[in-house]
Amino acid sequence: MFANFDFDVILRSLPYLFYQGMTFTLLLTALATLGGIVVGTLLALMRLSGLPFFNLPAAAYVNLMRSVPFVLMIFWFYFLVPYIGQWITRSPQPLQVGAFASCLITFTLFEAAFFCEIMRAGIQSIPRGQLAAAQALGMTYPKTMGYIVLPQAFRNMVPVLLTQTIVLFQDTSLVYVISVTDFLGAASKIAQRDGRLVEMYTFAACIYFLVSLGASHLVRQLQHRIAIIR
Amino acid sequence: MIKIDQVSKWYGPTQVLKNCSVEIARGEVVVVCGPSGSGKSTLIKCVNGLEPFQKGAVTVDDVSVSNPKTNLPKLRARIGMVFQHFELFPHLTVRRNLTLPQVKVLHRARDAAEKKAMQLLDRIGLRDHADKFPGQLSGGQQQRVAIARALAMDPIAMLFDEPTSALDPEMIQEVLDVMVALARDGMTMIVVTHEMGFARKVADRVVFMDQGEIVEDAATVDFFAKPRSQRAQLFLSKILQH
Fold this sequence. Notes:
The structure holds two protein chains of two kinds.
Chain A: H1 8-48, H2 52-66, H3 70-89, H4 99-124, H5 128-136, H6 141-171, H7 183-194, H8 197-226
Chain B: E1 2-11, E2 14-24, E3 29-33, H1 40-47, E4 55-60, E5 63-64, H2 72-76, E6 79-82, H3 94-104, H4 110-123, H5 139-151, E7 157-161, H6 169-184, E8 188-192, H7 196-202, E9 205-210, E10 213-219, H8 220-225, H9 230-239
Parallel strand pairs in B: 3-8, 3-9, 6-7, 7-8
Antiparallel strand pairs in B: 1-2, 1-4, 4-5, 9-10
């Protein structure tokens, strides 16, 4: 039944698929995860501050991000970021941002909302006694957070954070809406150029599956390695 | 050196501390006892500002705890505190538990902090455990490390909040031994505990609390010989049976 299929097209296009496509996908995943964790942690601290001045904007932001379709966000940011950039830098014409930067900003801001909720749960999982102990030793709020609470919260949450990263890895394929070539985009281009839709899409699916499966195995191993001894 | 003056505290409508006043002189060891829920822990947490209070004043070495202008972290760094559940930092080794606060709060040099840490671990007999994580130690060992961590800051006074309540019976003694040695060295100590043996041995005074009130504040000998209040008598008769 496979007689009519040409799996050779996969071999021929491998360099393009991986050098162009996968590099973009992995780079975007990695950078957006890093940015998302940093921004998300700040948002989590704002939400937990107990001060309406910090809490309310952070809560509004998280709720907004979580209730708008992601594809819409990608679109919207792509067209909006140049104008925001123009407004910030006060330049006469819209800022040239580029598709990658635009994607990176969108993904970082979007993921930050999810990482915020994860880190919030992580911070709340640290017993209050730990805070009291740090304070009793004379640590200020930033020191308590930086040396005692966040390192523990982060370690407890690494499995969840990385699982979210795997979801993000799959979500990067949504950049097709602004015609950026990620792994799936590259596969799609070849598929349409050579008329090999079934082969290319099947191959792409297999790769996504393998990477995600491998990553979740790694997460499980890492979880054992970094767990805090109790 | 520590002065608790007419302190009152409410959680919502419930008053948990009622006009509590105690003074502790330099080098004095004061044991605070009383039934659970009597406000003992809350009271000593007022001393380093971990618990805010609505009325009254607490001063430590003439620094007011409740004054908003007081640099609380700075004051707390000078008062050691030991908790019921140890509260060692589980993600750090024993060594790091002792050095991190010295380096980050007192800005000591790394090797000075290290030296201090090892001296103290030597003193509590846990030098060999320096590179273990708290979770790998027994409860008694963890509590001794917690005492060492507080001492590493060279505190002017130490607060103990039921330091042996969460321990298995066979581990209580090793912690009490460290505390007794500390008391004999002349450390100013406020100890919330049910260990009346400890109180008898080293306390200068015993403060008895019930329902948020200081019912009795007497020299140790007098307290055990003949407690004035009936509530203290009842408490003692119950606790001394075993």
